[in-house]
């Protein structure tokens, strides 16, 4: 048995996305079918459409989602039909070399559904980040379903499924931001503002938001930025140094994913400071840095996949902070849109009109 539902696919590289019929199989062993309630539009969906991630078209896009479990396959005990869940792309295996070292947030063998969702002609779809959630119902591995407080707003908490968690975790988990730190965040979209919010939660005293768009800087202030820099008008490295006693920030989060912004991050941190790259570069990008500076500035150059999060630990905790009014996830939701408006949402992402457009089902 299978179900036919509506979903958004990227059929060919660089072509507009389309709404079409998706065939969703019944859940097999270890799998779950989730009725999606809300799914945010992340820049990574656009990277997929542009062929920047891989060439496995057609993609079923969407991966920042919350919904209700409809059915589960054999052997599933952690979630049951009716549970409200945020979908994650880190269903840890418990058995790989990272998991065995007690660092499951690096898990190298995360679970995805074994069966594939398809088009009506049987063409197998590649679900974005192993999820695929711009669709009325999606098939995932049960471990990709993280139960959270069912009274939370789906459009807001679904964003923890990718961008907001990636940014927040880049600051707190990867960057180790703590009380009294100075933090600079380059690129203040959904991911960068997640980092700003994370730095604020962790007690950073100086939080410098950097973007090329004044509207983004205004929003970043709402998440806790104490200072803002428009990178179009100002020398970013010098401005960060000026705001940090001439030294640079303890932690710089790069949430754009480009060589020029990475270079700024590298030089805008203090000696022995930390750079965290959470923005995703494309395959042709390269960077050259004086090796003596890499050595001489000390500290750490880190990358952050998904904010080094552990969904089972972090999602319920962050939903609790949201419900207490200490993490404003609602402010990330600029607009709620329909399934057939994803292509327009990509356009708004480019013009800077939105932090997050969220598809509501
Ligand atoms: N590492 C991860 O696990 C992870 C997870 C989700 C997304 N991402 C990546 O994070 C990046 C950001 O995602 P997003 O959804 O926030 O995208 P977005 O498009 O909403 O935000 C990007 C921001 O960067 C700004 N920007 C562009 N060029 C700039 C420059 N030269 N200097 C300063 N700011 C500049 C834009 O104005 C925009 O506000 C993307 O590359 C995305 O793929 C990574
Ligand atoms: Zn593992
Ligand atoms: Zn994403």
UniProtKB/TrEMBL annotation:
It comes from Actinoplanes philippinensis. It comes from the Bacteria. Its cofactor is Zn(2+). The keyword Methyltransferase does not apply. GO terms for biological process: formaldehyde catabolic process. Residues 190-322 form the Alcohol dehydrogenase-like C-terminal domain. This is S-(Hydroxymethyl)mycothiol dehydrogenase. Gene3D superfamilies: Medium-chain alcohol dehydrogenases, catalytic domain, NAD(P)-binding Rossmann-like Domain. Residues 28-149 form the Alcohol dehydrogenase-like N-terminal domain. GO terms for molecular function: S-(hydroxymethyl)glutathione dehydrogenase [NAD(P)+] activity; zinc ion binding. Keywords: Metal-binding, NAD, Oxidoreductase, Zinc. It holds the Pfam family ADH_N. One of its GO terms (cellular component) is cytosol. The keyword Transcription does not apply. CDD domains: Zn_ADH_class_III. Belongs to the zinc-containing alcohol dehydrogenase family.
């Amino acid at each position: 048995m299978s179900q036919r539902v509506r979903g958004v696919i990227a059929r060919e590289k660089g072509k507009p996305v389309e709404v079409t019929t998706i065939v969703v199989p019944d859940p097999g062993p270890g799998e779950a079918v989730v009725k999606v309630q809300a799914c945010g539009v992340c820049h990574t969906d656009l990277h997929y459409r542009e062929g920047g991630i891989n060439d496995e078209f057609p993609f079923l896009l969407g991966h920042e989602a919350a919904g209700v479990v409809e059915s589960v396959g054999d052997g599933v005990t952690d979630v049951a039909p009716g549970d409200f869940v945020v979908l994650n792309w880190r269903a840890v295996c418990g058995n790989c070399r990272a998991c065995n070292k007690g660092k499951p947030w690096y898990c190298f063998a995360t679970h995805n559904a074994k069966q594939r969702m398809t088009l009506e002609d049987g063409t197998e779809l590649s679900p974005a980040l192993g999820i695929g959630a711009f669709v009325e119902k999606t098939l995932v591995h049960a471990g990709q379903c993280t139960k959270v407080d069912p009274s939370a707003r789906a459009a807001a908490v679904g964003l923890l499924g990718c961008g907001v968690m990636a940014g927040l975790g880049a600051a707190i988990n990867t960057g180790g931001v703590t009380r009294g730190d100075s933090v600079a965040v380059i690129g203040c979209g959904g991911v960068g503002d997640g980092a700003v919010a994370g730095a604020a939660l962790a007690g950073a005293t100086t939080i410098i938001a950097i973007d090329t768009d004044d509207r983004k800087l205004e929003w970043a202030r709402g998440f806790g930025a104490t200072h803002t820099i428009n990178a179009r008008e100002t020398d970013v490295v010098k401005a960060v140094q000026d705001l940090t006693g001439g030294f640079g920030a303890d932690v710089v989060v790069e949430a754009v994913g480009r060589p020029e912004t990475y270079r700024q991050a590298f030089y805008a941190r203090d000696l022995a400071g930390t750079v965290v790259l959470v923005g995703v570069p494309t395959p042709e990008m390269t960077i050259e840095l004086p090796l003596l500076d890499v050595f001489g500035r000390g500290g750490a150059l880190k990358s952050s996949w998904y904010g080094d999060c552990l969904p089972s630990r972090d999602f319920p905790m962050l939903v609790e902070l949201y419900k207490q009014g200490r993490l404003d996830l609602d402010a990330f939701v600029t607009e709620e849109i329909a399934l057939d408006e994803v292509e327009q949402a990509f356009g708004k992402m480019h013009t800077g009109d939105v932090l997050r457009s969220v598809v509501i089902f």
